[in-house]
Amino acid sequence: MCGLSGEVRFDGTAADIGAVGRMTEAMHERGPDGCGLWSQGPVALGHRRLKIIDLSEKAAQPMVDGELGLAVVFNGCLYNYGELREELRGAGYRFFSTSDTEVLVKAFHRWGPACVERFKGMFAFAVHERDTGRLILGRDRLGIKPMYLAGDGRRLRFASTLPALLAAGDVDTGIDPVALHHYMTFHSLVPGERTILNGVRKLPPATVRVIEADGTATEHRYWEPSHTRGALPEHAGLSAEEWRQAVLEALRVAVRRRMVADVPVGVLLSGGLDSSLIVALLAEQGQEDLATFSIGFEAAGGEQGDEFAYSDLVARRFGTDHHRIRIPDARLLDGLQDAVRAMSEPMVSHDCVAFYLLSQEVARHVKVVQSGQGADEVFAGYSWFPPLAGAPREQAADIYARAFFDRPHDGLAAIVSPGLLPAHDASGDFVRAHLARPGADTALDAVLRLETTAMLVDDPVKRVDNMTMAHGLEARTPFLDHDLVELAAACPAELKLAHGGKGVLKDAVRRLLPAQVIDRPKGYFPVPAVRHVDGALLDLVRDALTSRAARERGLFRQDYVDRLLADPEQDRATTGVNTLWQLGLLELWLQTHGV
What we know:
Organism: Nonomuraea composti
Radius of gyration: 23 Å
Protein name: asparagine synthase (glutamine-hydrolyzing)
Structural class: alpha+beta
Distance between the termini: 28 Å
Shape: globular
Number of strands: 17
Pfam families: Asn_synthase, GATase_7
EC number: 6.3.5.4
Helix content: 25-40%
Strand order of the largest sheet: 2-3-1-9-8-10
Mean pLDDT: 94
Strand content: 15-25%
Family: Belongs to the asparagine synthetase family.
């Protein structure tokens, strides 16, 4: 797990190694254990290293194999690197390290860009071919590892974080109106290739892009889970009990895969079903002295600030080395500002500060954790899924938008400045186009595909990556194992929707977990003090929205901002997000990153 960066030139000049150095240094938190730069003519690569597999300097990056004519930077982990290495050895390849990075190098040489189809893991990488001058960029199936791009006809730069590209300089930092529409509509996230900035794009998940020496490029999307009942013929005709056993076995494999490391692996234990199940399966497989970590905050506004009763129950049941981390309110404001600094893109969820502060403490004990993100999207755990059951396919977009969009398109005119408001319903168009694609049997299937391959990538997955890597902590997410995701996609909807959502999962684990954990109401990271915009938080937001930078940027109508500041709790999005916080967070992020 690391941070990568690079530049490739198309105008006949040498790559700017200074710019790559600045990008690399901007990501030092992602890789505190080492730093490397390499350049050759029009290409330069940079890397910050977090030592997880092969702790020796033989695994340092950029990794250059002169015999094969390849130079590589890689961020992530190939959980099946051991099996791939043995297969490659059988084909005659020799290895000088025990790293998964070197396996990627040899795998690319043997199978070319199609090597990604053999990888089981999370990854973003750049490979430069010496003999052709081509640069190949790749990203894992579910976008767990990020890849940001900024370029023009003369060059392309890429990095694991957006702020790293800003550190290199010469980025168009104008606001993208379509991205702003998404941010204000689609649950405060920007899906797909766009970012809030005109000059920065993302390599989509499950994509390999091949960039020729002259700058022309082709790309291939190599995976998308089929949300159809016939997607996995070997599972046709399974009974409900057989589906439960298939899901449980796939999750066992996913958890086991993510124990691959040369350092200890812990678990972020919220006390909910998903993280508790990971602990149970690790205990089942004989894991001893497992370190588990839970976080809690002070109660506020009548809201409880922790779920320690559940996490303690699980920790006692499985005898883990459990760490209760309680955060006083005095740390929250600084933690919030630090979390904003750690965001590659603006993220409204108050979970961010919880993940940031939790990761800060966890990183003092371990360098790798497993986490339960993704189960709700993959196994239909959210409240907006049941209304889609049996709905006509053509009504899916409208039903989903009513439950999930922050506000309708026609509600933006009173909020967003006219010059930044697209004439068309950009977010609605995005969702309608996604849901209309083939490969999903029903309205619910189409929405689950959207959640798994778009929303999940640019909200919870990004949140976990950014907040953990801000402290050099690698987070692994077994519910996003692509084999498990494919299985869940093919599973009958009624099994997933049972028991209020995630039914097939709940029924599969009743012999492993206490009923209090399985059947409890759905919980979230509780951070009561930042759910309500008042006190010091209100001062922070007011300063951001009334600053000279905000006035000159002019994203929002001033009369609307003034009304919110006069009554901070007056307006909440459909999803419950405080609108003042949504506006303030965006401006805070832009100012924090010098935009």
